[in-house]
């Protein structure tokens, strides 16, 4: 369905947990080990089904870290059974991907985005608080092996922290059929609010002038490639080049609240309507109509960290 600004809302991101096994410097304002209420798989299914009736065609499972939930494959299996859903994707830090990729694929997952901010062990540890780079790299290999496709790497660059390693991340797109996407640092943590750290998409293009634009079906990212590259480099610039006028997404938090915009605190609980399909759909339609014209990064920061909303 269209919202009041004429945008076709077709993409739902479901954060299935707020818990995370990493503690990334730029991510959240709340404790990553903290357990917010989580719904059982059937409840996400009911809500997603109602969203699908309102025009949602793509779902991304995210978190927190979705793979810390033992029933994540059951969630994927139920979401896959919704006929209107054309694309089912998941975003993960990749730490548990090696042991889960095969089951996720069998449950019906199409594609995976893996967060990797550095290929250098000590920088990775500094940014995430954990010494698990090797596990993440093994998870990427396994995702490729079981046929999850496309595989995209998400990286957030921060000046003075990991931006010197951007070239090594770009090498992954050179050598493998993997897209590497640089997401501009958004103001969701104390580190994120330090705007002197941000590396914009334009700065990346100046630093790597061999990157040339290529056609992209990748919603928010503008895509680039270069001769001999097997994958692409994507730039996601929500801060320097706001893409709100084309925003097609809404978010479901793990506790059953629907959040129309990442940049505002408003979130609406739909759990009271779980057992009444008709009312649930109508409530969701009302919430979609509340989606604001655009975010307000720059003038205010949001109260929900990305460890709550899932990005
Ligand atoms: N745990 C999963 C993961 O690490 O991919 C899913 C949740 S995580 C919040 C989703 C994405 O948000 C990650 O790719 C992460 O890099 C990105 N992210 C978190 N905080 C951010 C920030 N302040 N600015 C830009 N991206 C951010």
TL;DR of this structure?
With 311 residues, this protein is α/β, with parallel strands linked by helices.
Write structural notes for this entry:
The chain has a single domain, classed as Aldolase class I (TIM Barrel), CATH 3.20.20.70. Strand 10 (249-252) and strand 11 form a beta hairpin. It has ten helices and twelve strands. 30% of the residues lie in helices and 17% in strands. The protein has 311 residues and is of the alpha/beta class. Helix 1 packs parallel to helix 2 (72-80), helix 1 packs across helix 9 (277-288) and helix 3 (97-107) runs parallel beside helix 5 (133-146). It has helices spanning 41-53, 72-80, 97-107, 121-128, 133-146, 166-175, 190-193, 201-207, 277-288, 306-309; strands at residues 11-15, 58-62, 87-92, 111-115, 151-156, 179-183, 212-214, 222-225, 233-236, 249-252, 257-259, 268-269. The protein is globular, with a radius of gyration of 18 Å. The mean pLDDT is 93. It has a twelve-stranded mixed beta sheet, covered by helices on one side. The protein binds S-adenosylmethionine. Residues 20, 26-27, 62-63, 65, 91-93, 115, 154, 156, 183, 185-186, 188-189, 192, 306-307, 310-311 line the site of S-adenosylmethionine. S-adenosylmethionine binds at residues 20, 26-27, 62-63, 65, 91-93, 115, 154, 156, 183, 185-186, 188-189, 192, 306-307, 310-311.
């Amino acid at each position: 369905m269209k919202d009041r600004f004429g945008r076709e809302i077709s993409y739902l991101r479901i954060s299935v947990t707020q818990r995370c096994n990493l503690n990334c410097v730029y991510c959240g304002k709340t404790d990553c080990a903290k357990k917010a209420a989580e719904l059982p798989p059937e409840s996400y299914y009911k809500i997603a089904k109602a969203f699908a009736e309102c025009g949602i065609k793509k779902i991304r499972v995210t978190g927190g870290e979705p793979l810390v939930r033992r029933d994540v494959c059951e969630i994927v299996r139920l979401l896959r059974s919704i006929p209107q859903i054309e694309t089912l994707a998941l975003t993960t830090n990749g730490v548990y991907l090696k042991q889960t990729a095969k089951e996720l694929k069998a449950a019906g997952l199409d594609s995976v985005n893996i967060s990797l901010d550095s290929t250098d062990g000590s920088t990775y540890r500094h940014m995430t608080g954990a010494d698990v780079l090797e596990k993440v790299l093994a998870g990427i290999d396994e995702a490729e092996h079981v046929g999850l496709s496309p595989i995209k790497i998400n990286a957030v660059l921060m000046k003075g922290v990991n931006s010197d390693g951007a070239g090594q991340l770009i090498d992954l797109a050179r050598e493998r059929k993997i897209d590497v996407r640089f997401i501009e640092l958004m103001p969701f943590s104390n580190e994120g609010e330090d705007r002197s750290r941000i590396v914009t998409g334009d700065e990346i293009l100046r630093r790597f002038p061999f990157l040339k634009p290529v056609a992209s079906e990748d919603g928010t990212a503008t895509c680039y490639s270069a001769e001999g590259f097997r994958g692409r480099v994507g730039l996601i610039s929500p801060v320097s080049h706001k893409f709100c006028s084309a925003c097609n997404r809404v978010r479901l938090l793990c506790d059953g609240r629907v959040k129309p915009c990442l940049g505002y605190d408003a979130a609406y609980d739909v759990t009271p309507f779980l057992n009444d399909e008709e009312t649930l759909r109508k409530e969701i339609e009302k919430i979609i109509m509340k989606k604001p014209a655009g975010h307000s990064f720059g003038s205010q920061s949001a109260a929900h960290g990305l460890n709550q909303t899932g990005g």
